[in-house]
Predict the 3D structure of the following.
Amino acid sequence: MLRTEKGRKMSMRSSEKLWRAVLATLLVVALVIPMAANAAPASSGKDSGPWWIVEPEPESPSTSYDSILYSEIAPKLREIEQSSNRVKVEVVGKSAGGRDLYFVTLSAPEAMGRLGRYKAIAQTMLKDPAKAQDMIEQLGDFKVPVFINGSIHGNEYPGTDAAIRLIETLAYDDSEEVRAILDNVILLVNVVQNPDGRVLGTRSNANGVDVNRDFFTQSQPEAQITAGLLAEWSPMVVLDLHGFVKPMLIEPCTPPHNPNYEYDLYIKWALAQAEAMEAELFARTGWAAQIPYRDRAGGWDDWAPSYMPVFASYHGSYGHTLETPYRDERGVDAHYHAVWGALKFIAENRQEMVHDQVEIYRRGYLDLEQQPVPPELLPVYDQFPELMLQDFPAAYVIPAGTPLQASAHQPYRLIEFLLHNGVEVEKAVQAFSLGGVIYPAGTYVIWMDQPKRALANVLLEDGLDLSGVPGMVFYSPPAAWSNPLLWDVTRAIMDDPIPLRTTPVKKADVPGPSVESGKAAAYVYLPTSNAAIRATNELLAQGLELIRVAGPFEDGGRSFGAGAVILPGDPALARKVAGGYGLDVYALGAVPDGAVPLKEQHIAVYADTGTRLALDALGFEYDEVSIDAINADALADYDVFINLGLRWSSINVDGRSAFQAWYAAGGNYIALPNRGRAIDFAVDAGIVDVSYGYTSGNGVVAVDYDPHDPVAAGYLQSGHAFMYRSVWFTEYDGLEVSAWLEEGDFFKSGYWPEWQMSGAAGMPLIVHGNDGASNLTLIGADATFRTHPEGSFRLIANAIYNGLD
């Protein structure tokens, strides 16, 4: 497809041609769907057999009512499916703990055999939104998908219980209200989004992750699977069932509102629908509700796309969180009646609501300007109307591999992420120039004239610096995120379109392995990706002899960066490593001087879930240690101690003496920020003397790495990091600097009031040093915040390996 200077698509399909294609799709679907309905039942993937046979396990529901156990859900759903022709049940994946995720599709019987038809129309919304508006008006019986998400926080039990009660009502009842809902809605129910938490009695999943903070990272299977369903269905309404706020809380949210989605169309229907839910709740129970957008000045915002219903809004959905007020049966009642009010509202307003949903896509597809929220819908205390309109670029440009990227792995991860979430990605057919840089053919181009431009832009942009906006209050960090910047991906912004021929892509280019030919005394690969770190750890676990070169070196007239890992001169091994991990492996004429043998390290960790999952992603084995264990000299059994937040004052005299002895004997201490506690620990222990500045704010910062430094090994000189309760160093005598905050305007996005006056610009962000065999690394940036800054994980790996030098 060729883009002109005006950015319009020159190969626009005619309406007649598109209509023929849609009819052909519908015909195929009409033939395929009935056959699929008669297929053999899906298996849960376990040896125990079909999905509805679940082996009971101990469960810890913290409820005062007879809440359904997780092990009872599958048989219950199977019973409903077999006795109602309105219901279809699927297992759409597994949780982090290996438990099935149940997905229910429910509608009128005649619609259940035509689900493909509705999906085809939904896809037309994205391919030709204007045509879809006409189609929907002509097809009066078009049913809209409504997505119910049950108990993303596992110990908020009423959400799943209410979802099952709703399924039963709509599966069996034949009241006038039920018929009206079934005539207008395809109900999609993620019955128990967090089965691990439901079984264990925890908010988080089995990995300790709050899934409702994971949607712009999708590090967890529960978030990945739900995100895939949102991309597949583009539901018109999303209701996420939580607890516990009194009176019952029904979104939309307080400011600040993220400017990327079409807020004027969203709030038009989200506010009216919330008031319909409020009215139904009061009519059925007499209980009041609160709507943050209408009733609060701040503190319950929809700024970050980490929350499930907010993330859904970037798909064009009218998304709501519902917080039930009660932990007992009344909590189930509140959710049930509120959702019922939404379903009745949708049945009455379906045509107009879906018309405006398609208008969201039309604006993106045709690159139309956003429209302001009508004054009558703005609360008097909404202080930030200037934040509610977005100026979209023409496109984002992402090179597929080196030398513009540190590695091909990072863009591969990002492009696959975008495609999984329904973002349209294309490739340049020929080389082109942008901003004085030549980008080769095969470079990814994400044009913003696409239906889901809101989703594409919120994931790819730098974000906004909100530091100077007064009165800003956030429910929870972060105030900024950026998948390319924090995933170590080089990307450029095309502000205005250029003539460029591009073609759509369905899959990202898998990082291609390469092994340099010729006689080799040894082979080498560079630590430029998380895959390279995993390779190193897995090879060491297999007993292979590896060595590391801390600094850069020359071989045969070629330059290699710091931190290179040297393999034995076995071509078969080199091919195996390259192929197994998608690495570029180079032949060396000689083993470089100063190389140090690598060995598996015994690692002790006092840190949070993000740090643990980062180590998991890199392939490190580790043990979590408690204060009692440290007091009992447990560190004597470890080579490395990673500390996120342990204070020196928290351990006793024996623990202090044991730590000092461990470090003096050659320990490797790695401090992560978290208010500077782990750095203070090192200062109080007497192993380093530093001073630092501190911010409680959070955001994305520009960083200058020293690519010759062993801790910054594998990074390009210009990069980014995330700050949250983080530090920079003002006094650091005797230590080496791995990275600095960029001079000047280093703060790219987020909320850090008066960062310009902080004195942080140009100051060290990461320092390290040694005292004989003892090593320490002090990392001022938050390298593992909720696992989002994946590009920073390698800093920890380099710090671990550096202790061997």
